[in-house]
Amino acid sequence: MEYQAVNVRTSLGTITVINVYVPPTPDAVPPPFDDLFQHNNTIIVGDTNARNLLWASNTNDARGRALEDAVSAHGYVVLNTGEGTYQTYHGSMTHIDVSLASNQLATKCRWATSKNTMGSDHVPIIIL
Length: 128
What we know:
Strand order of the largest sheet: 1-2-3-7-4
Order of helices and strands: EEEHEEEEHEE
Strand content: 25-35%
CATH class: Alpha Beta
Number of strands: 9
Low-confidence stretches: none
Structural class: mainly beta
């Protein structure tokens, strides 16, 4: 698992934004998702390659269950609204990009996707 974090000063105070990437390889042991949930006022986004009904995947996998457990344990909220975020080479949409917010920020966030993929197979996500 790779991730980067930045602090952004806003009218709401400092918000930590964490971008995460988990390669799509089979995990004998799920990544240490708890490491991502160390700050208040945090938004976590990224390509987790995790599937879970909580963010509208059509199935749960071990990685998705591990991320769901971390979300629940740390009081975070899934911002995804059910739109697909990744277009497979067959043309179908999947839900492997997840957006999370700490409880205190979640009610202030609105989640959407852009129709312009800018040449990527991942759909740009906009959080306002």
